[in-house]
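U., I forgot to send this yesterday:
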Amino acid sequence: MANSSEDGELNVSFHGTSNSCCVSNVTNINFTSYEQSPDFYVIIPVIYSVICAMGLTGNTAVIYVILKAPKMKTVTNMFILNLAIADDLFTLVLPINIAEHLLHYWPFGEILCKVILSIDHYNIFSSIYFLTVMSVDRYLVVLATIRSKRMPHRTYRAARIISFGIWGLVTLIVSPFFVFANVYKDGLNITSCGLNFPKPERFWFKASRIYTLILGFAIPVSTFCILYIIMLYKLRHTRLNSNAKALDKAKKKVTIMVFIVLAVCLFCWTPFHLATIVALTTDVPQTPLVIGISYFITSLSYANSCLNPFLYAFLDDSFQKSFRKMLECRAD
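Result:
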């Protein structure tokens, strides 16, 4: 859902982050005919249900292990914990998205509309911001290892304070979407939940997409790309002493894990943001193919919320050991 207009200037009906990426620049859009299609009607709820089940199971396991296992209380794991909380929060509201898709209208009232749309946007910003902070942390760790310096201020408590700061920043960024989220009736008199902008709607809608693109993609992606380029350059052009040569093996493993989680996040979210650029600069025709691509891109961005736990399970030995140990304790 997005914005509505009584004069027909811009009438789009889709969720804040979903189904909007490819068609946000088209006027008088109506998805009802496509949503009634048996393919979309059945496939989308199935995909969302799988993402929801995998995401809730995996992220809840990550949260449980990090909170319960003493050895898991590290700086990196504090950021991973918050990343899992953000993903869990999003997957918890996916059933409401599924219900709305099946019903073809919004039955849950205005308060829940504002909450769900805000959480939908939290999903865009929180993951990328926590990954950016993890990249900064990795950069500082690698730099300190190269110089054989200690980092006395890099503590679990400091990571917790930074995490609270990120949640505060994301809340501030998402607050305009909470304000504009409303329940309204579209041209077909169907109750919808979306971003209901003041006039001129087209200007506000484009501004909201540019706002999301810059704060939710361009700035954080530029930040961690620059950091990793500098990190690789320093590693390649610095003669490491025996202490730093293996980058302390464990630190090297964590750095690789953060890099892979980052790469998967980019793989899942880049199509969404690229499609936003296309939608802002081109009049995309409303065709079944375009709607299908839009659903695929949205599902891919949603899928990021359930992939991270499996990456930790494959890439982090300490997570595997802690998880196995806890399972053994529960079995006993």
